[in-house]
Amino acid sequence: MSMINWNEYRQRISAGITEIAKSSPDIVRGYRTIANARAKEGALDAKTRELVALAVAVTVRCDGCIAVHVDLAKKNGATAEEITDALGVAVMVNAGAALIFSTRTLDAFHALPSDAPAAKP
Question: d(Cα 72, Cα 68) in Å, to the nearest integer?
Answer without folding.
Answer: 6
